[in-house]
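Hi V.,

Quick status before I head out on leave. The structure for the redesign project is tokenized and pasted below; the design run finished overnight.
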């Protein structure tokens, strides 16, 4: 059975554009190098999906997410980049920034919507006390975004020691959209 989504569409306002620009700056790249349009936001309750799709405003459905046409999401007025955009940026840079690589166990846990323990983080790339891309250690694909849930000092200490302590909150993961749109 197909679930009918109720949503509103509008052009992204200056606060959302500022949030996007801030995320690109954090990663050390220019906003205009990756965003060639005026973004739209598709509002579904407290979730906003950012897209450049010309047709999305008229024909929105989950295909925007799965076709790679989305720029990011807005949750509780905070902007987070899409997994697709992170991967494009990392290819452009030839390396990672604001990222954590997680173990197989961490990937499984994260994809079910759970937070990440320091013991699941294999490697990390500064800056780590901001939203970070979560990267699968098996295939080096971005599987979602997480945000620190402890102080900066606690985070660094827990990561260095590999503690069994939750340190990153799951903001969204690839499984999130399957759960949200079902």
């Amino acid at each position: 059975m197909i679930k009918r989504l109720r949503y509103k569409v509008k052009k992204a306002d200056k606060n959302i554009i500022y949030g996007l620009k801030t995320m690109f700056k954090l990663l050390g790249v220019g906003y205009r190098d990756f965003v060639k349009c005026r973004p739209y936001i598709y509002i579904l309750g407290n979730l906003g999906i950012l897209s450049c799709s010309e047709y999305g405003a008229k024909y929105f459905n989950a295909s925007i997410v799965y076709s790679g046409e989305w720029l990011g999401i807005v949750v509780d007025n905070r902007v987070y980049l899409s997994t697709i955009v992170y991967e494009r940026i990392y290819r452009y840079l030839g390396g990672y920034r604001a990222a954590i690589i997680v173990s197989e166990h961490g990937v499984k846990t994260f994809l079910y919507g759970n937070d990440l323990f320091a013991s699941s983080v294999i490697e990390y790339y500064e800056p780590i006390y901001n939203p970070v891309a979560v990267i699968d250690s098996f295939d080096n694909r971005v599987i979602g975004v997480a945000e620190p849930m402890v102080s900066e000092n606690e985070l660094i200490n827990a990561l260095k020691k590999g503690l069994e302590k939750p340190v990153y909150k799951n903001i969204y993961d690839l499984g999130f959209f399957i759960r949200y749109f079902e």
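Above is the designed sequence. Helices lie at 14-26, 31-34, 56-59, 63-66, 83-93, 104-111, 152-161, 174-181.

G. will cover questions while I'm gone.

Best,
W.
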